[in-house]
């Protein structure tokens, strides 16, 4: 019944292993809880969220993006993110992605994208790097906010302003023409009026 030093060492090792197992279990539960919270935020976010690899291959698509772009999450995985972007903005998108991979900050920017049915969707897009445990970038998280209505409204305002400027220019030209006509008419009428005045005086 007496604990020898070897038995004590064995018990100490077992206790250490149990403590490590308990700590690992706690960490595992915390990780699972974090994953659940992230998944819940990812799936229920109002903004469009897509995760793609460094070459642009789509890895995941949240519900908001799937509904707007009319792709299921599984369908989206068959595409590269650049295939959804208007050709005029593809180089900009690639440039921003490259900078994010290099840990160069890029502010949110606007670009034109298209749904599965080729309907235009303007986005304000913000990119973040997805890192592994060694702090290496393994993917890109793209968060997009639909600004199509605001963009359309701004374009309508600009078009209206341009039309008003053109109308104003036309009115100004018309006023100049009227002023010129009035001057010429006044000058041409001066001689007949003098003749009438002279005739009356006779």
What report would you give on this structure?
By secondary structure, the protein is an alpha+beta fold. It is rod-shaped and about 150 Å long. The protein has helices spanning 5-44, 63-69, 73-76, 87-101, 148-201; strands at 48-52, 58-61, 109-114, 120-131, 137-146. The chain is built from 5 helices and 5 strands. Strands 2-1-5-4-3 form a 5-stranded antiparallel sheet, sandwiched between helices. The mean pLDDT is 82.
Report the sheet with the most strands, covering strand number, pairing sense and barrel closure: 5 strands, antiparallel
- Biggest sheet, spatial arrangement of strands: 2-1-5-4-3
State the helicity in percent bands.
Answer: 55-70%
The pLDDT mean sits at 82
Give the terminus-to-terminus CA distance. Answer: 157 Å
Number of strands: 5
Q: Unreliable runs, pLDDT <50, ≥5 residues? A: none
Beta fraction of the residues?
15-25%
Radius of gyration: 36 Å
**Class from secondary-structure proportions:** alpha+beta
> Could you state the oligomeric state of the chains shown?
single chain
Write down the secondary-structure element order.
HEEHHHEEEH
Shape: rod-shaped
The total count of helices amounts to 5
